[in-house]
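Hey, quick one: can you model this chain's 3D structure?
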Amino acid sequence: MNTSSPPAGRVTRRRLFCAAGASLATPLLSGCAARGYEKLPSPTRPGTRLDFMFPRGDSYLDITNAHTGERRALRFMKDGRTDRRALRRLDWLFRDWRDGETPDIDHRIYWSLAALSDVVRQQGHSGQIILLSGFRTPETTRFLQSRGIGASSNSYHMKRRAADVLFEGIPMTDVANIAEWLQVGGVGRYHGSNFTHIDSGPIRTWRG
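Sure thing. Here's the predicted structure for all 208 residues.
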């Protein structure tokens, strides 16, 4: 049995269990209707660890858009209620910066990022997030494909249900491992570009 201490900066599953809390809580957020797009699914997925942890955790997010330099540091839920103004500010941050239209991002993406951030902050990290890609329009997807960048024509980014992120001071593999453990949905490990993809689709993992 390996009894050595975990390397500095890493977040283990044992630590994650300690951060989860002791009792089950009922999820508190509900889905939102989209304007001009497909109706988003409810963010709740009963039975997943994310639905266990998030209502008991902190909804604080500190995110910087890598392309625009814009930063949002806020809580989008307080006392069991969502802050619509905070959510709209996050939606704007997650927009396709080439297009400028504010999307309605699936709340489960914010749940997932908040839960990830809460866990790593409890381990002494800042929890700060760099957003590489949120919502993408079909036009942007076609542009990226024309440049030889692997953007799927059926991407969850176009459905407003995905984010590509970096966490300050946390190795990409650790972020992906936590996201996979939380059962957020899809988790992609992109070693070449050193970022983690999460989406609110079916639970699955892959390497890019």
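One thing worth noting: Helices lie at 13-20, 49-53, 84-93, 107-122, 138-146, 172-182.
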